[in-house]
Automatic annotation (TrEMBL):
One of its GO terms (cellular component) is membrane. The chain crosses the membrane at residues 33-53, 65-82, 110-129, 135-154. Gene3D superfamilies: 1.20.5.1930, Histidine kinase-like ATPase, C-terminal domain. It comes from the Bacteria. InterPro entries: HATPase_C_sf, Sensor_HK_TwoCompSys, Sig_transdc_His_kin_sub3_dim/P. This is Histidine kinase. Residues 174-239 form the Signal transduction histidine kinase subgroup 3 dimerisation and phosphoacceptor domain. GO terms for molecular function: phosphorelay sensor kinase activity; protein dimerization activity. Keywords: Kinase, Membrane, Transferase, Transmembrane, Transmembrane helix, Two-component regulatory system. The keyword Acetylation does not apply. Pfam families: HisKA_3.
Amino acid sequence: MRVVGPVMGIVWVVFLLPAWQSAWDAPQGIERILSLAAIAGLALTFGWVVVTCAGPRGGPGPHPAAARVLAVELFLVGLATLAAESRGLVGLVFVSVSAIFLLRDPRALFVPLFAAAVILAVPRVVPGWDTIDDLIVSVFLASVAVFGFTQLAARNRQLAIAQDEVAVLAVERERERIARDMHDILGHSLTVISVKAELAGKLFDVDAERARAEIAEVQGLARAALADVRAMVSGTRAVTLAGELAGARQAFDAAGIEAQVPGALDQVPDDLRELFAWAVREGTTNVLRHAAASHVQITMTQDTLVVDDDGRGPAVAGPGNGLNGLTQRARQAGARVEVAENDKGGYRLTVTRAR
């Protein structure tokens, strides 16, 4: 498109040869010189129009020099007729095409209508001029062809812009996914690691064997977190509801928090299990990190998951990154997230399929 459009447009200049020949064959004189110069100038002007405005070079809206260029071309057509007579009116084909390239608007099609009127009328009122009504067909064919070409070029520009925007949005969405998953994965893993490391520190003088077991679990959690980060970056990581419930049970036990965690998952639809898994992870992280709770209860139905604790209750400062990430996931799954204070004064996280 970048090369073919301008080349095809410049090739059209050969259609000025009949006008050039008519002017060349005219008697010697100033009219002949002016006509030949005008035809050459028209060819150069039209070539500039095509190279400048055709294809991807033509932006939206009229070209700033449109009016001046069209006025110059009309003036050159008038000079061309001094010696070429009616043959000089072939320049109106190029004026019509230039108008479409320069104005970039359907209203430019009025220029070919004006050109057709001139081609019909002027040879009939100027003595000695031959009529060239067949030139009207050339005017309209050229104008329609170029109008279609410019519309195609405009659509291609719009498509390229849309593709660029889609690419930018895709990159932004991927960055958001990585940031959200990084927070959810590392936030949870580091919280559990911190709890277990603290427990191991307290057990060293009391139960060294169990302390070593806790440290071994910390090492395992660290390796698992590293593997999760690698899988998350590659987009291959997935969470499971059963796995998150088991992890929550283990984390609460290590933190000395009494927990009621469901064991049966049959009532949860497949399309909600991943969302509920992320909700369990976020709820567990919140309890371990912020709640200072002694009791936690996780309940599930076929369309709702609730995490209740008897800790401090919702923070006044508002939701953090983890809750925002969970809200985004819920929205994508057609669900909603609610945070409230429960009847024990603690924190309640609810994820419900939107009805």
